[in-house]
Amino acid sequence: MALYAIGDLHLSFQADKPMDEFGKIWRNHVRQIEKNCNKMITDDDTLVLVGDHSWGRKLSDCEKDLEFIENLPGKKVLIRGNHDTFWDAKKTAKLNDLYKDRLFFLQNNYYPYGDYALVGIKGYCYEGHDSEEHAAMLVEREAKRLKESFEAARKDGFEKFVMFLHYPPTSLWEKTSRFTFMADAYGVQDVIYAHCHGEARYHDSLLGKVNGIRYSLVSGDYLRFRPFKVMD
Ligand SMILES: [Fe+2]
Ligand SMILES: [Fe+2]
Fold first, then answer.
1. 10 C-alpha to ligand 1 centroid (Å)
2. How far is ligand 2, taken at its centre, from the CA of residue 222, in Å?
């Protein structure tokens, strides 16, 4: 049994959005994901997809992309990315009903992995696209959702956590954030995030051990589309 993670599949089985235009690393990326997952992951394993699953805007435009994810080996757990508009934040329970025993949508809930609870949210960091006040409001909203997940897991007796965010945990100039403080407060073992594409962005946020917590970037292109093994 092992826990794997990869983000930013950016699938487009139902949308005209070839990823090759983002650089040669994206050439045949879907086949690479499929090949690497089938080689590395067994059905006893858990694979967390760390957001930006699909270019489809509505659920009906994403069904083939979700089917592709469903057909990957292992138990699949998904968090929301900034491009996942098919996933209405308030309708996570409905998605979990629809995909019961096929895919698990992680938000305002948790997913058990051995004696760990996996918790996750989209998160947010300031990238200069909006006002700092708006960014702060989004960070607060996401932090509230994350706290709900931690508390639900704690209530069920979990004391060990792996925390997933789609956005990096800190903005460019930050060393700490609302999310790193929460990771510290709940004694998280690993913080896993995605979203950063292209070499120029791979070092936008924390990497490696900080305050005893391991921070890992798992965006698809950073991993060259090989899932990252979080633990056995
Ligand atoms: Fe992405
Ligand atoms: Fe993203």
1. 7
2. 13
Mean pLDDT over each residue of the chain, to the nearest integer: 96
CA–CA separation, 87 and 197 (whole Å):
22
**C-alpha 230 – ligand 2 centre gap (Å):** 20
pTM: 0.97
> Burial code of 103-116, b = ≥16 C-beta within 10 A, e = fewer?
bbbbbbbbbebeeb
DSSP H stretches of helix in the chain: 29-40, 63-70, 92-98, 132-155, 178-185
Residue in 97, 10, 91 with CA at minimum distance from that of residue 49: 10
pLDDT of residue 51: 98
Q: What is the mean pLDDT of residues 139-164?
A: 97
